[in-house]
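Listing S7. Sequence submitted for prediction.
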Amino acid sequence: MFTVHALDADALESVRRTGKDVSGNPPVPYVAEGGEPVRCCLRDATPGERLLLFGYEPMLPAGPYREIGPVFAHAQACAGPAGDGYPADWRSRPQVLRAYDERGWIHPATRVHDGTDPVGELEAVLAQPGVVRVDSRNIAYGCYMFTVTR
């Protein structure tokens, strides 16, 4: 069994409140065309939703594998993810399952899944000794999607 985590709520609230992302850049207001992966509620956007595009740094220990990348989130607070488990809208989407150890270093269990069995692939990665977390990332752009822990 595993737990799925959306992007950090405090980091998102800070972006909304201050108008600055982790790098000090202003978030870009964006009106969804539909299909954009919204990281605050772990689903695809519907056309017309008001989003923010900004730089996000997943919460890893300080070290060489911390990185910042673009994410979409709702411009205003939302209800968050609907339900538990692997996000329904993203089940058939191929993803990189980037595994990390307790230091926040990338673990060799990292793999790409083709979207046919994301839950099985994720469970296999989490079962590897030393893996404490897995970040799902967009295969084409490398963007952070969500985090999974045991």
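Caption to Listing S7: primary sequence and predicted structure tokens for the chain studied. The chain has two domains: 7-74, 88-149. The first strand starts at residue 3 and ends at 5.
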